[in-house]
Amino acid sequence: MSSVELKTQIESLGERFEEISKVIDINSLKEELNKLDEVMSSPDFWNNQEKNREVIQKRKWLEETIENFEGIASSLKDIRELAEISDEDTEMLSMVSDELEEIKKRLDELELKTYLSGEMDSKNAYLTVQAGAGGTEACDWADMLLRMYKRWAERKGYEVELVDITPDDVAGIKSATVLIKGPYAYGYLKGETGVHRLVRISPFDSNARRHTSFAAVSVMPQIDEDINIEIRDEDLKLETFRASGAGGQYVNKTDTAVRITHIPTGIVVSCQQERSQFQNRRKALELLKAKLYQLEQQKLEEKRKEYEGDKTDIGWGHQIRSYVFHPYRMIKDLRTGYETGNTEAVMDGELDPFIESYLKWRASKTHKSN
Prior knowledge:
Layout: H1 3-23, H2 26-40, H3 49-86, H4 90-114, E1 125-131, H5 136-156, E2 159-167, E3 173-181, H6 185-189, E4 194-201, E5 210-221, E6 236-241, E7 257-262, E8 267-271, H7 277-308, E9 319-324, E10 330-333, E11 339-340, H8 343-347, H9 352-369
Parallel strand pairs: 4-9
Antiparallel strand pairs: 1-3, 1-5, 2-3, 4-5, 6-7, 7-8, 9-10, 10-11
């Protein structure tokens, strides 16, 4: 690459960085970091372990974002100076080119965070996996998806808390809900809502025939207590039952698990992972609040589409991704077109390329509609 070409690319990256700088208010992030440092310096901070983890995770996210922002600014300054003195020095140009590629990667990572500007994007996420029709085959597929999301969360350093699970009698799960705790968990995962389709040779078919299975994923933000979503006691039907785990083993010997039906909407939530009925009821109500928020957002989205004359599916349960394990290996997002043949890595939690392509696709659609 010539000196002129390098300088052109550097200027292009500089322009991208300037655009990102307009979206990411670095001074506000620094102020927020300072406030968290003050909170963490309080003598009684470590008394609340659950709150501690969330604050520590948020602080780490802020610190990494600020360091990346300032690092890119410094690297761009340095590389501009190197480009000026490199001329046609082959060794120097090669060094500048390598540094340029590294800046591009860091800039891509920073740019991704500019897409996480929704009202709820910074929140923790409730993620529910529901097996579709197809018996054991679909239940096994739902269990595979649940594992995939757990592994993704582990890669991000997020905490995964099991809220509710209904195992299948033979294999896999009929449904499960987990709470994924970490900065911007909802923002990253919101695009996973929809139907996921699997094509493979069934491990449950003695004739080794190819089967197609479906499972639905739903992602909702964890709603803060200060967000007002009215839930009246008279609108709730409360039931208790014994909590059970995989294989039908009882987690508790008494009726500690709680199932709540919201009568006006028909929404049903349950929680069975806590030790007491009171704790399970509290968690179930928190999940109900998230589902009611999601329902209101869906109504608003439908209304917006109606006004815009857009008759396409708005994405609250349609097929979004195809996973093919036979006769070839390919995972493809049907919205963005992003695909990969490395199915093992994806099922082991390497979801970021799909998440990034969705966020960019969504941002481009929003930009065009505006």
